[in-house]
Amino acid sequence: MAYCATPTCTLPLHHVLNWSPFRIDALGIITMIGAEQVNSAIGRLVRSRYTEYLPLLGAFVFASDQFADAKSGFALYNLTAGIMTTDIAGWFSRWCMSQGFERSSSRVVWTVNDRSRRKKGCLRGPQTADGVLASIIGTVVNATLLAITILQGDWWGFANAVSMVLSVAVRAYVVQQNRNALDAAAEKALHETNSEAKIEKILVILSDARMVTMYVPANVVYRCFVSKPDLKHKRLYYNIRMVGWAGFAVQVVSLGMSGLATQLVTVSIMVMATIATHFHIGCQEEIVATRLCAAKGEFGPNRTRRKDVYAALELEGHEEESMLAWNLMPHKTTPSATSWWTSYMKDKEEYKKRRSGENTVPQHGSIHSGALKKDECMV
């Protein structure tokens, strides 16, 4: 073995740089696997106390802004306003698909966390305990990879590690900007008073045909669920995304030139972080960004058919007319439809009698106090 007298050869882990008993296609792994899972998980704008600042597969998803794109195949029916739309905000469609809702019986009560009601001195966002924990984990993991490449003298690996840190920084910025925009939209909806109803009753049909009933504060449907969050500093947002593309290009070039040990550590970190992100480990699904809070529940084990859910909704006459116009209820033109309507009206009356005195389903004017605990939305 030839003697090496260069400063790099004296590094503690330099012998690891030449260790290569086999080869892996690390470049193919980080560019072709996991992008769709990362898109769906991060795009729902829910924080994770563990993976918020860890490098993930498919970094180009954030550089290209794909995680914020709208999804097709969804429909939202606002029974209170008599309006339907297939134009759904990207975060909302991703959040709905990740919740594991039942076929028809799931319901969600949404509230907006009023910032003025929080206790003074309460920390929020990255300053919360979860944010601090995520920062510590991210710093330790990324610093470890940087240290390993430096101690090997693997400068291609060092460039790869730097590009990973850059990708995390870009992701943190673009995702936070979308969260801030959603918070601003919720804040605006909270103080708007142009709607007669305090609570809007909506049905959401997901791309796999599941139906979810939701009770939402007035104006939140339009501001948050339908409209894409209006970003501030759009030029800076665009420039940061371009930096993300540059970092991704550096990783594409440098990872293949790195030592095998660096490639294995890189792939291991990114794959494990992506798996944890995909399975929502460390996430509080009830809180989206910092202002929107969702309390999930079911209408009951015996209400699995849509007809049963419609009966539990206690629809008013104009709401039933809207349902007919949207073809969500059978038209009264055939004997089978007449039988369906007779059964539906009977179930509706029976449900109303059983619900009398109970504190379960929110109605038009307000949300019952038992539907959501006051502290569930606090961050």
UniProtKB/TrEMBL annotation:
<keyword id="KW-1133">Transmembrane helix</keyword>
<keyword id="KW-0472">Membrane</keyword>
<feature type="transmembrane region" description="Helical">
    <location>
        <begin position="236"/>
        <end position="254"/>
    </location>
</feature>
<feature type="transmembrane region" description="Helical">
    <location>
        <begin position="128"/>
        <end position="149"/>
    </location>
</feature>
<protein>
    <submittedName>
        <fullName>Uncharacterized protein</fullName>
    </submittedName>
</protein>
<keyword id="KW-0812">Transmembrane</keyword>
<feature type="transmembrane region" description="Helical">
    <location>
        <begin position="155"/>
        <end position="174"/>
    </location>
</feature>
<feature type="region of interest" description="Disordered">
    <location>
        <begin position="354"/>
        <end position="379"/>
    </location>
</feature>
